[in-house]
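Example S7 (structure tokens).
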């Protein structure tokens, strides 16, 4: 599945004013329901909860994913204002940070491989200039998470 990170400029603002630019991401392929789920949880979670890696959160999560893959760490939990990311070998589970599990924000999961690919892509995207010309297309592996 193809996904893309890009920089959005709010309508009516100067695209050269980096304070009016927002880094976003989203799935480009799949049914509407699949795209909506990935965009609402995975991509929204990464771009809002990791605050452009100001505090090293992306790097910390990537290091934890590596340890989970190697079997030296069973699980890791991180998150921010949007979601709690509960990461295990079988899946990455997203729970809304404010509302928890509720009808508007049910628990959603993706595979560890999908999360890692999206996180690595986001990390590479953060190294690009914050400009409306910046864009990165990535490939997410197919798969269904276990034990969601």
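Recovered sequence:
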């Amino acid at each position: 599945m193809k996904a893309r990170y890009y920089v959005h400029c709010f309508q009516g603002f100067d695209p050269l004013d980096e304070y009016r630019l927002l880094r976003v991401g989203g799935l480009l392929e799949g049914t509407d329901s699949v795209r909506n789920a990935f965009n609402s949880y995975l991509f929204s979670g990464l771009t809002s909860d990791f605050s452009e890696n100001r505090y090293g959160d992306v790097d910390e999560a990537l290091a934890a994913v590596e340890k989970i893959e190697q079997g030296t760490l069973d699980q890791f939990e991180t998150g921010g204002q949007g979601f709690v990311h509960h990461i295990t070998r079988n899946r990455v589970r997203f729970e809304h940070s404010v509302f928890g599990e509720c009808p508007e924000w049910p628990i959603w999961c993706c595979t560890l491989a999908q999360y890692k690919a999206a996180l690595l892509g986001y990390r590479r995207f953060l190294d690009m200039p914050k400009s409306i010309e910046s864009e990165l297309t990535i490939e997410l592996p197919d798969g269904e998470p276990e034990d969601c």
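Notes on this example. The mean pLDDT is 91.
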